[in-house]
Amino acid sequence: MKQIAATNDFVVKFANVNGSGSASANGLFAKVILRMGVPVAARNIFPSNIQGLPTWYEVRLSEAGWLGRRGGVDLMVAMNPQTWDADVKSIEPGGYLLYDSSKPLPAGKFRDDITIIGAPLTELIAGAFTNPRERQLFKNICYIGVLAQLLDLDFEAVKQRLNEEFKGKDKLIQPNLRAFELGRAYAEENLPTIGLKVRKADKVGDRIFVEGNEACGLGAVYGGATFCAWYPITPSTSLAEGFQKHCTALRTDADGKARYAIVQAEDEIASIGMVMGAGWAGARAFTCTSGPGISLMNEFIGFSYYAEIPGVIFDVQRGGPSTGMPTRTQQSDLLLAAYASHGDTKHPMLFPANPTECFEMAADAFDMADFFQTTVFVMLDLDIGMQEWLTEPFKWDEKRTLNRGKVLTAEELEAGKEFGRYLDVDGDAVPYRTYPGTHPTKGSYFTRGSSHDRYARYSEKGEDYVDGMNRLLRKWETMKGKLPQPARRDAKRRTPDGVIYFGSTAPAMDEALAALEAEGVHLDAMRLRAFPFPDEVFDFIRAHEQVFVIEQNRDAQLKSLLVNEGGVHPARLVSVLHYDGTPITARFITKEIAEKLRAGQAAALPERAK
User: Fold this and answer.
1) Cβ-count burial 308-321 (b if 16+ within 10 Å, e if not)
2) Do 381 and 236 meet the contact criterion of CB atoms below 8 Å apart?
3) Mean pLDDT for the chain overall
4) Confidence class of residue 447 from pLDDT cuts 50, 70 and 90?
5) What percentage of the chain reaches a pLDDT higher than 90?
6) Which of 144, 355, 407, 420 is a good FRET partner for 522, with 20 to 30 A between their CA atoms?
7) How far apart are CA 41 and CA 34, in angstroms?
8) Angstrom distance (rounded) from CA 60 to CA 30
9) What is the chain's alpha carbon radius of gyration, rounded to the nearest angstrom?
10) Alpha carbon of 149 to those of 4, 193, 197, 198, 474: distances in Å?
11) What CA–CA distances, in Å, run from 462 to 303, 342, 468?
């Protein structure tokens, strides 16, 4: 049997039980490798319960810097009997299986084409600790010790991380070090060397390891947000918690007075209603939720669109429909967010591809909401939101000021400047507004969700309604040049085929493009960063015979948006769809595109010959 041999380029997967305390040990493993200068992509795949169901933690080492999921497992740490068969099956031929050999297993539980590594973890820990909970927890650190010896991890880095992890809890440091050393010493004395190794590198640089939700929470603070109303829902809860943490540090006066407000509302309807009220009053306000929450918020979202009230919604997408898969990732809320509410509505969406863009787009969203006087969606998903990513440090221009948009002051009103709440004064379809209480007699208007004329007066005249709705469409056109523009990547040589993708698909897509180029398949690529789509997107589609659209949902929602908004013939767009709840992999994309190209080229030969 030929063993896999690789240095700084392999995948380790941990199979555990939720609530067993494995998360901190597995995270420690990833962070030690980062400290050794080797980039990692770590993903926690967890169930929607508190304890007892299977959970996995996948760590991909890639000195080349690939941060998407590769697919396949080179070393499986199998600690969950419930998922044993599937876990063993997922190992690549020539790979490795590390398991707790305290109790013997029948030969049929193993495979002949992988290397079996047994370590009596339960016995080792039972001999050193008496407390049942400690035995459960320290078994996790014990297998990290085994891995440290097998993979040549830096022991000092492990000790440093343990000290940092349990800072202020000194009584936990020594027991953890003891459990770690039990595993390391056993591996040194009893286990053979394997073909997977970690060597110090210098490929991490100054990049940081952070969740997208945390980045959005900080971005909201820098973007001037002072009010958050939310209702807990996976996978968005940590965004509100991140905002609160950073507000505590950055929006609290020396006397302890908070310069922000965070309300956990009774439900999603109440939370978006509070955001609308705060936005009307002039505060920068947001809520964070997921698909089920957006469903409940629809009426208020339509109110924001028609009454033209600014607000920001962070939609951390998960598997649907209904309750769906609360702790799995998808990109399945695009149509829901783009056209949320009844009647004719359209809402801008931002598509961050990593936590750095989460930070930047979170801040930008509040400028956009204020300027365009509407709800702006920041479309994350669980993969970006709840996973830690290696990403560029956040940067902020200290000279930057908040763009409050077209807000009339008391002085301007006093000077006789004409005010009509829904007047298109500048030709960009964006009207002027006032904050409540700006002037005692001028600039006041009723905010209502019913039909109105240019001066905010209630009207059911058809011409007034059409006038307002058409101006909103013109405002939509103005947005196209003001939102983040697509990121373009040209192939090394001209190709008749292109590819469009967005959001968390980007890391796997970047690797897939490189793999396809190595096989002689060259594709022009465009990453979408916002909706509405600028004209450049449709120029890109027209410039190619066919364009692959990569997305993580069943119904090709991005393709539907492209067809609907740009009048694109559906046959020009070829869908590559992934929606099993796990993050898309480079291998999946490469295989799907290669197969579709072969099939498409065979079918198109007679036509191209003409």
Assistant:
1) bbbbbbbbbbbbbe
2) no
3) 94
4) confident
5) 88
6) 355
7) 10
8) 9
9) 27
10) 17, 9, 10, 10, 64
11) 19, 18, 10
Residue 395 has pLDDT above 80, yes or no: yes
Report if residue 564 sits inside a domain: yes
CATH number at residue 597: 3.40.50.920
The reply to whether 217 and 92 lie within a common domain is: no
HSE (CB half, 13 Å, CA atoms) of 246? 22
**Given the DSSP bridges, would you call strands 497-502 and 546-551 parallel, antiparallel or unpaired?**
parallel
| 111 and 63 part of one domain | yes
Helix (H, G, I), strand (E, B) or coil at 93: strand
Chain-centroid distance, C-alpha 287: 16
* pLDDT for 605 beyond 50: no
Contact 308, 315 (CB under 8 A): no
CA–centroid distance for 323 within its chain: 19
Question: Measured over all CA atoms, what is the biggest interatomic distance in the chain, rounded to whole angstroms?
Answer: 89
What is d(CA 282, CA 225) in angstroms, rounded to the nearest whole number?
11
Quick one: 540 and 506 in the same domain? yes
Q: Which long-range contacts (CB under 8 A, 24 or more apart) does 169-175 make?
A: 175/129, 175/134, 175/138
Q: How far is CA 262 from CA 242, 298, 302, 403, 455, in A?
A: 12, 22, 23, 23, 34
For residue 606 the two structure tokens come to 């007679």
Tokens representing 387 are: 């996973």
Beta carbons within 8 Å of 416's beta carbon, 6+ residues apart? none
The total number of residues written for the chain in this structure: 610
- pLDDT, tens digit, for every residue of 180-229? 999 999 999 999 999 999 999 999 999 999 999 999 999 999 999 999 99
36-89 pLDDT, tens per residue? 999 999 999 988 877 789 999 999 999 999 999 999 999 999 999 999 999 999
Q: Cα–Cα distance between 536 and 104 in angstroms, integer? A: 62
Last residue of a domain, one of 197, 224, 253: 197
Verify that 184 and 263 share a domain, yes or no: no
Question: pLDDT by residue (tens digit) across 131-141?
Answer: 888 888 899 99
